[in-house]
Fold this sequence. Notes:
Helix content of chain A: under 10%
Oligomer: heterodimer
Structural class of chain A: mainly beta
Largest sheet of chain A: 7 strands, mixed
Order of helices and strands of chain B: EEEEEEEEEEE
Radius of gyration of chain B: 13 Å
Shape of chain A: globular
Strand content of chain A: over 45%
Largest interface: A-B, 25 and 23 residues
Distance between the termini of chain A: 37 Å
Shape of chain B: globular
Largest sheet of chain B: 6 strands, mixed
Radius of gyration of chain A: 13 Å
Distance between the termini of chain B: 41 Å
Number of helices of chain B: 0
Mean pLDDT of chain A: 92
Number of helices of chain A: 0
Low-confidence stretches of chain A: none
Amino acid sequence: GAVVSQHPSWVICKSGTSVKIECRSLDFQATTMFWYRQFPKQSLMLMATSNEGSKATYEQGVEKDKFLINHASLTLSTLTVTSAHPEDSSFYICSATSGRHYEQYFGPGTRLTVT
Amino acid sequence: KQEVTQIPAALSVPEGENLVLNCSFTDSAIYNLQWFRQDPGKGLTSLLLIQSSQREQTSGRLNASLDKSSGRSTLYIAASQPGDSATYLCAVSPDDYKLSFGAGTTVTVRA
C-alpha cells in the first residue's frame, strides 16, 4: 500500500512557541490531505482538509489562526501549531489521498507535548 | 451530525477465542465504512472497507458485516492471537471523503 510519513514522530516544546509537523506522501501524489488530532482513549477528530495549492478547510471549532496548514506540493502538507499551550498536547495524525473515491492512507502520527 | 459508537470500549479474551467488535452510527446515509487497527502510539492501518452496497467483507481471519439500515457494523476476528492486541477503530464516510471515527475498542488477547 501507499506510504505516508510524518515528522517528527514526537516533539516537546515550551508554552508560547510554535511547532511545525510535516506530512509526506512517499510514493503517490496526494491531492488532498487531512489532519486529525486524537486525545487519549478518544476518537480521531478531523481538524482540517487541505487540497494542494489552495487554502485549508477547517472543521467547526478549530482555530485556523492557531493551526496553520500549508499544502504547497502534491507530496507535502505541514501543520504549524502557533503559540502552543499545554491543552494543545495531543497526538496529531495526517492522512493523504489521491482524491475522492480513493483510499486514505494514514501517517504514523506525531506526539506533541507542550510544557 | 454523524455519531459513531463502539462497544465495548475494552475487551480481554484468552488466545484462540473469537472476537466480536460492534460499531453503530446514527446517520445511515453513508458511502462506506472502514475498520482500522491502531497500535499504541502509532498511526492507523486499514483492515477492511465495506461499500454501502455491500453486506460484508472478509480478509483472512477478519470478517466485517454492515447493516446500513440499522446503522450497525460488526467486526469478527476468528481464533484470536496475542498479536491481535490493539485498538480497533470504526469509521464511516458520508461521501467517500471525510471520515467520522468511533472511539475504538481496545482488545487484549491473553496468551
